[in-house]
Amino acid sequence: MFHTTRRYPAGAVVDASSMSSIPTLVRPESLAQQGYDTIRRAIRDGKIPRGQLFSESSLAESLGVSRTPVREALLNLFRDGVVEIVPKRGYRLVELDEAAISEIRLLRAALEQLVVGRLCETVTPLEIRELRAILKGKGRSQEDMYSIDEAFHIRMAEMAGLLQIRRELLSVRGKMYLIASGTQVASMRNDKVVREHAELVDALERHDCEAARRIITEHVERSIDAFAMARVQLSAQPRLKRLS
């Protein structure tokens, strides 16, 4: 289901009704962690308007929780460089310029190369089976593909024992969601991503580190190119339909 971009007066604070499609949170996972994950997805899917202020209260109401876990989630997103704090007014999505996007490209590629380089040397047959199981997933909807992609890349960092890099990857991926928030990037890349992931796992299984680093570098480049292309299309077509 699609809808056109809703526009708000400059400087207006977005209320909870404008974000009614964001799902409410359920326990038992930390509400702050759930909030972090849910807000990231909302940014990715274009459910939080660009350039507009929003408050802890409006998000808390939309998510069905108190302000405390929402505040913690937003502070983590601030640390990720995904939202900015506007003193006494609320929060706003960070605007990325071309220089920032170029830096994100370099950083994501460097981090993924470090992960793959380490994992290629240490990966076990059991871990290879786990990675293949992640890639099989439970479906092929756009939401499924985003979830599978993130789970795959983050799990590789965990397997490699690179937990600081894992955190940095989550931050960089959040910034990638900002590049073309709400556009149909996943549907443009689904089939190619499936093939690239499979090729990467094959190279890891062979412990072919050179091939694995080449595949992950090309994979990251193509992914960010797709986000950048969607950003251009979004800028050129103000009424480009976004995901609901």
Give keywords:
single chain, 244 residues, Arc Repressor Mutant, subunit A, Four Helix Bundle (Hemerythrin (Met), subunit A), disordered N terminus, disordered C terminus
How far apart the termini lie comes to 6 Å
At CATH level 2, the architecture of the largest domain is Up-down Bundle
Determine the CATH superfamily of the largest domain.
Answer: GntR ligand-binding domain-like
As a percent range, the share of strand residues is 5-15%
Largest sheet: spatial strand order: 1-6
* Mean pLDDT over the residues: 84
Structural class: mainly alpha
What letter string, H or E per element, gives the SSE order? EEHEHHEEHHHHHHE
Major sheet size, sense and barrel closure = 2 strands, antiparallel
Query: How many domains in all?
Result: 2
The CATH class designation of the largest domain is Mainly Alpha
Proportion of residues in helical segments: 55-70%
Please state the CA-atom Rg, rounded to the nearest Å.
Answer: 18 Å
CATH topology of the largest domain: Four Helix Bundle (Hemerythrin (Met), subunit A)
Q: Shape, please?
A: globular
Give start-end ranges of low-pLDDT stretches.
Answer: 1-8, 239-244
E-strand count: 6
